[in-house]
Amino acid sequence: MSSRSAHRAALALIGVALLGEVARAQAPPRPTPRPPVFGAGIEVINLNVSVTDGRGRYVTDLKKDDFSVFEDGVRQDLSIFSHEDIPISLVLMLDTSASMDEKLGTARAAAIRFVGTLRPQDNAQIMQFNDRTTILQDFVADHPKLEAAISRTEAAGPTALHNALYVALKELEKQKTQAELRRRAIVLLSDGEDTASLVSDEQVLDLARKTEINIYAISLRPRHMSDRNSVRFSQAAHLLTALTQDTGGQVHFPNSLSELDAVYDRIAEELRTQYSLGYVSNNPRRDGKWRRIVVRVPTRDEIQVRHKLGYFASATASTSR
Fold this sequence. Notes:
The protein has 2 domains: 3-30 and 87-272, von Willebrand factor, type A domain (Rossmann fold), CATH 3.40.50.410; 44-84 and 274-312, no CATH class. Helix content is 30%, strand content 25%. The chain has helices spanning 3-21, 104-115, 143-151, 161-173, 201-209, 225-228, 231-247, 260-273; strands spanning 44-52, 68-71, 74-76, 78-82, 88-95, 123-129, 133-140, 183-190, 214-219, 250-252, 275-280, 290-296, 304-306, 310-312. The strands form 3 sheets. It has a 6-stranded mixed beta sheet, with helices on both faces. Helix 4 runs parallel beside helix 5 (201-209). The radius of gyration is 20 Å and the shape is globular. It starts with a helix and ends in a 9-residue tail after the last strand.
């Protein structure tokens, strides 16, 4: 067995082990809009794009011709453009390790308020994590069920942040089908330090880059400056920054728990105001290599555009060995 094959086999075993620990409840699927239909073998690159002006306000009046999309520096033709109310599927992750004990009451209240912003066509999964990852409520649009799940969170044990993110990405990836058009996102609240994971930060980053999932992270700063400067907190902050930047999301570092409502409101507004863009790459090579994406809005000044930074091209059997 080659080293690459052995690595893939190890990741598969880790995924099975982690998913086997997850407690879950089944919820009936909800109908969603159908995406445009393309021929067999056609790979469409989907982008969730957030646009803000110089004051940080979301720009919501752009048209298809306002966007220019480049892959490895080459202009691409947009096949999909939408700014409609596309349904959202998200995983709401709550750190319930022992270090969150005093913060959990405020965190619960803010999370419950956040799920109240979800529309009838949206659905969410509630996940708590410490040294284990537990799904308290599977994907559902029912607000009372989501709120009840959040209320059941309890703080105990160490933090396996990497494990939980790996599971959340796998869970949300299952929500993607050819018959659905949904934005997918992970919204994570944690006090940051991983102390118990089997999965490495690089494995989480690699998996995140292979999805079309936006990650939004809220990292609560330790009270004491010495703790903020610790190696573990710095490593966690670096991972969350890299994950959110690579996937087109955003990381927030509130200075106090009183800022949680405002942070969740910001994330909710972004999810509602994103543009959905899609294109078929004019690079026909199936080499499995990383392709960098840049989205610009040349028709406007002082505009900031955020989206996933790239993707791995599909690979043929010969190139994936």
